[in-house]
Amino acid sequence: MNPPPAPPDPPLDETPFLLTRYSEYVPHAHSMALRARRKINIFTQDFDNTFLDNDSFCTAIRTFVVENSRVARINILIQRSENAIRQGHRLVELARRLSSFMEIRRPASQHASIANAFLTFDNSCYLYREIGDRPEGRGCYQDSLRTLELNRKFDEIWAMSEPETEFRRLGF
Length: 172
What we know:
alpha+beta, Endonuclease, Chain A, eight-stranded mixed sheet, 7 helices, globular
């Protein structure tokens, strides 16, 4: 297996960077997951096959859990899970094996119209797309204010969410 591509030298300040293609998210998601120490939140429309369903990201998630097993937590909110289940998504498989650390839920009906997608890593890094079904977005390695804002939004939706029934049938 080839090592994951390294992101371009990540800025160590609060300067956001733009992303225009799904493939650009892969090295950043990998790098940010490896920097995380406590929590990763994922809000996705349909598990973003291009960058969440790959060896690089899943390896980084596994490493995050192993290195931080006492406190590691990965919460995933998914709007539409049908394709991920049908296609055998790697992150779904990983969640099965790491069920003590990962939980997958579906947002409540009042949040079903939220169109964006984002990942937060602890309270410092994020990847964000205004329209979750499009590749254009931005990220930042050190922006605690924006990351906290996204985490608050995630926590609000999480509090009213329900376990994804499709995953229950699969043994979650």
